Amino acid sequence: MRPQPGGDDPTLAAPRHERDDARDAALVASVLDALPSPTVLIDEDGTLLLTNSAWDAMADLVGGDLLVRVGGNYFAMVLDMKDDATNRTLISTLNELSRGERRWVSSDYALPYSDGVIWFHLQASRVGESGRIVVTHTDVTSRVRAERASSWRARHDHLTNLPNRAYLHELIDAELQRPEGPPVAVLFLDVDGFKAVNDSLGHDVGDQLLRELAGRLTDGTRAEDTVGRLGGDEFVVLCRDCDVDGAEMLAQRFQSTFDQPFELGGHAVRLSASIGIAAVGRSGGPSVRSTDLVRDADLAMYAAKAAGRNRVRHFSPDLRSAAQQRMQLASQLREAIEGDQLVLHYQPVLHLPSGECTGVEALVRWQHPERGLLPPSEFVPLAEEHDLIVPLTRWVLATATRQAAAWDAAGLPLVVGVNISAHHFPAGTLVQDVAHALAVSGLPPERLVLELTETSVAEDPALAAAQFARLRISGVEVSIDDFGRGYSSLSQLISLPVGVLKIDRSLVVGVDGRMSEAAAAIAAVVSLASAFGMRTLAEGVETEEQLAVATELGCSFAQGYLIARPMPAGELADWLHARALVGVH
Ligand code: C2E
Ligand code: MG
Ligand code: MG
User: Fold this and answer.
1) What is the tens place of the pLDDT at every residue in 513-529?
2) Which residues lie closer than 8 Å to 194 by C-beta, 6 or more apart?
């Protein structure tokens, strides 16, 4: 659309100042027309004086009366699009520009039309002293789309498309900061046994499970709730306007979504979840932050898991103090390992065919300065959680091999068993740590047995196999501890160079005569193990009957309170001596 100042050749017919204005206008018109972006010249009151061809083309494209033509009002057009604070601010800044109170205006705005939205970057500047403004509109739709997509990606989890950790915290904080806002609850959900699925069925199946779960959780929530994924198998649900009771109901609904098995890669997998709840009421105040609330819900989840999985727990302040105590105990444990507060007790292992004690198992204890002698259940899991298991195991290896070498020198050639935590595998130092202990103590490798649990094999069979093979080459024997307690099958273990299978106490305890079910299970394990060249050890033998059955069923070894409780190194020689004197066989 062209300008319409009067006359065919306005530069000649009009008086001089009008001729100058007209020449300016013609100049502006031709400059505007050369611009590729839709551009308009407006008066101080918003009246459209000039438009360029790109603007006219744009007006045709979006259709209707969305974009005004010459003579129309630009400000009114903007408000017609949307009468909101952003657009009113835009108009007032354009007014300021026109009055010379600012040098330019620059802003992005969206133009919704029938076929979508066009994003413009608007730039306006004043033409001379006239108060007129030139406004250019650069189409930045593709840039805005890319930015929006990337900001969306930055705030969402790629696997499930749910809000990620950072965005969840932002959303929870926004909710907590609402003055006098309604109560807010946070649910922290962790899938029980997810790692086993991931490890046994593969990561693709694990991913599929997480996506399926994300869908189920989202379906189970109200529109005003937000489900997000913190990472791994941890999900957090922000429940707006929700008190503890509401959150409890939601948690129960989540648990019932697990009733239905997950169909994964041709397997129907049954799972459960442990859920922790933390809530703040109306009076929670602005001092509570998202990190606090999520941490409290996490502590409650941890307590739910510790209480036996598939449970819901509410946060209570004692959980926080328990967590603080655990932290404190962990730092004390660090010092204990360095400061020699750990002690090893040794439990004799009986070779059943000969009736002789041929070995011992080293079992760690902590001589705590205030709490007395602590059993491993009080601090080994703590060491595993706080990256202390490797230094702890190095200490045990060093002490046990040194002790065994000393017994050897004293004419007691015992095999010593050392427990190795599954958490030692990822560190990748096990083979080195063992070699170091043997080198320092001078103990021959065949006098050392490393006891690994089934789970440490099940978690990463390939890694376990590689380390087993290297240990076996070094001459050290490996046994599988607590066999029968976990889920792994014998078939998973026979490919490994395992010397001894230690049959878990839970199986041995059930032995009630030769014909009992437990005895049948032990008999099956013994015959399968021997078919693959493994020997078996009955753990936790407490009665004469259990010992008799274990012997009859062909177990190679037995260990348990009936034979002897774990004892300090200094008592072992006496114990052996006393046995020899009474001639126990
Ligand atoms: P484990 O390796 O299966 O050790 C056997 C546990 O059963 C020992 O408990 C032992 O005292 C107990 N026990 C032995 N005979 C009987 C019995 O007849 N009846 C009953 N009820 N219990 C019996 P402890 O010393 O409390 O150790 C518990 C677990 O802690 C061990 O189970 C092992 O998994 C872990 N552990 C012990 N020492 C270490 C260590 O140095 N490093 C690591 N990573 N774990 C260790
Ligand atoms: Mg053991
Ligand atoms: Mg055991």
Assistant:
1) 777 888 888 998 899 88
2) 206, 209, 232, 233, 271
